[in-house]
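Example record for the data management plan.
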Amino acid sequence: MPPFHGSLTPPCPLSPGDFVRHPGRPDWGLGQIQSMIGARITVNFENAGKQFIDGNVIELEPAELPRP
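Corresponding structural encoding:
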């Protein structure tokens, strides 16, 4: 296997303001990304409040806003 020369943080299509779900914590509900600094992602979840997510460990799932 050739040596790895890329970034340790994978490219992420998410950005602040996007809505997401935590794949391992569906009980947290819908979350909105507040900030992203490197792999550290701050998300405000409807049922869990502000949570700090390590993007190198957890891959947040993009989510659509629920329709009224």
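Summary line stored alongside the record: The two ends are 50 Å apart (CA to CA).
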